[in-house]
Each structure stands twice: as C-alpha cells, then as structure tokens.
Amino acid sequence: MKILLVLSFITCYSLSSFAQDEVISISQKSDVYNYHVLENKPLFGNTSKKEDSEKAFKEFIQNQIDSLDLNQGNKTFVSFEIAKDGSIQNAKVLVGENENFNKAVVDLVTKSPKWKPATKNNEAVKSSYLFEASN
After folding, report:
1. Which residues are 131's β-sheet partners?
2. pLDDT tens, 8-30?
3. Burial status of residue 120 (CB atoms within 10 A of its CB: 0-12, 13-18, 19 or more)
4. Rounded distance, CA 119 to CA 94, Å?
5. In angstroms, what CA-CA distances link 54 with 3, 44, 60, 86?
6. Which 3-state string (H, E, C) describes the chain?
7. pTM check: above 0.90
8. Which of 19, 42, 90, 93: disulfide with 102, CB 3.0–4.6 Å?
9. Region of residue 121 (left: phi > 0; alpha: psi -120 to 50; beta: else)
10. Angle at CA 116, nearest 5°, toward 113 and 121?
11. 43-73 in b/e burial notation, b at 16+ Cβ within 10 A?
C-alpha cells in the first residue's frame, strides 16, 4: 500500500511538472525553475551530461548512505533547490517512513559538493530537483 502511495506521488509530481509553467513561483523567494523543463540542467560533479550527472549524484549519496550505520530497507524521496551559485538549499523529505534515515539523507544532500547550476538564456538560474534514496 505504501509503495502504491509513493508511486502515485511520483507519477502526480512528474505529470504536474510538465503541466506547470516553467517557473515555480514561491512567495518571497526568487524564481525556481522546474528541473524537468530546463534545457540546460544543473550538473553534479565534473559531469557534462544530464544522465552522467544524475548517476554521479546518486552514487555519491549512495556511497555516503552505505557508510552510515542505519537499518536496511529504507526509502525516501527528497526535494531540494540548486541555487545560482550551485549550493543546495531547502532540502526536505517528501515521502519517507524512517525518521533517522530521512534526516541522514537530508543532511547528506545539504552537505554535498556544489553543483554547476542550471542556465537559461546563458544566465544561472535556481532550479528544483527530486530524487529517491534507499538502502
């Protein structure tokens, strides 16, 4: 049942991402661009392609998770923003059952190395990002 809830959430999030305008307006914050609609996506590490960046970030987080002493079988979905300077902001758990695991993943994401920010019209822009972590 919980798996269905998570899958439903991801499906709705993905569909709504494409149905929304390019910019997610957040009150009293600068504009945040949806990762899915940006042509020049943010990149993690020394990667130059979206697929390589996603893989590198997932491996980075997974290696950090594996080094922690946490119960196995956890899964969480985390969203965060990549600022214009490449730093991580506003990391939060969207779905996750184990509070210790959720907190550990958010801490790892927040402390991860800077990204190369997304660009639009050759200008760095703030973008949103969603990913799944498990152990």
Report:
1. 78
2. 445 444 444 443 444 444 333 45
3. middle
4. 26
5. 23, 7, 10, 15
6. CHHHHHHHHHHHHHHHHHHCCCEECCCCCCCEECHHHCCECCEECCCCCHHHHHHHHHHHHHHHHHCCCCCCCCEEEEEEEECCCCCEEEEEEEEECCHHHHHHHHHHHHCCCCEECEEECCEEEEEEEEEEEEC
7. no
8. 93
9. left
10. 160
11. bbbebeeeeebbeebeebbeebbeeeeeeee
Angstrom CA distances, 47 to 17, 35, 43, 66, 88, stand at 24, 16, 6, 23, 17
Q: In angstroms, rounded to a whole number, what is the distance separating the alpha carbons of residues 53 and 41?
A: 9
List the end-to-end C-alpha distance of the chain, in Å, as a whole number: 20
Q: How does the average pLDDT of the chain come out, rounded?
A: 82
Summarised one tens digit per residue, pLDDT across range 66-82 is: 888 887 889 999 999 99
Neighbour count for residue 106 (Cβ, 10 Å): 19
